Each structure stands twice: as structure tokens, then as C-alpha cells.
């Protein structure tokens, strides 16, 4: 997040972070399925790691969105 980004750049970054969040959650679900067919704790660990990454990307998306909204509301969009 940067003060010199435009509204559009902030919103694009927010969308990108949401896409990354979705990919992380999909990977976590894949590890959950693999873990159901395996006795290895590896998949549980990897699923937890991917869920943590998803939460980070979710927080980034919300921060970028809020910054973009603030930029849009201040009147100049920059």
C-alpha cells in the first residue's frame, strides 16, 4: 500500500490480493482432500500454511480497498 497510488491502482491491487486468497484457499482444500487419503501429517501442515497465507492476502485486499476508497472520496483519485 502506498500513498502515491491512484484509486484504480489500489483497487487493482485489492482484486489481485483476493485472487491470491482464492488460490490459497483452493490449495488448502486440495491438501485437505489429500490428507483424507493419507496418514501423513504433511497435508495438514500444508493446508494450515495455505490458510494462513489466505488470511494475509485477505488483509492485504481489505487494506488496499480501504486506501482506494479513501483516494476516491478525497476528490482527486490520486
From TrEMBL:
Highest taxon of the lineage: Bacteria
UniProt-annotated stretches for the region Disordered: 1-78
Compositional bias (Basic and acidic residues): 18-30, 40-78
Protein's UniProt name: Uncharacterized protein
Organism: Deinococcus aerius
Taxonomic lineage of the native organism: Bacteria, Thermotogati, Deinococcota, Deinococci, Deinococcales
Amino acid at each position: 500500500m502506498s500513498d502515491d497510488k491512484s484509486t484504480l491502482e489500489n483497487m487493482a491491487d485489492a482484486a489481485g490480493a483476493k485472487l491470491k486468497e482464492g488460490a490459497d484457499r483452493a490449495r488448502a482444500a486440495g491438501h485437505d482432500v489429500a490428507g483424507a487419503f493419507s496418514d501423513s501429517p504433511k497435508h495438514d501442515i500444508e493446508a494450515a500454511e495455505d490458510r494462513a497465507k489466505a488470511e494475509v492476502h485477505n488483509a492485504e485486499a481489505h487494506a488496499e480497498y480501504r486506501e482506494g476508497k479513501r483516494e476516491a472520496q478525497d476528490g482527486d483519485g490520486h
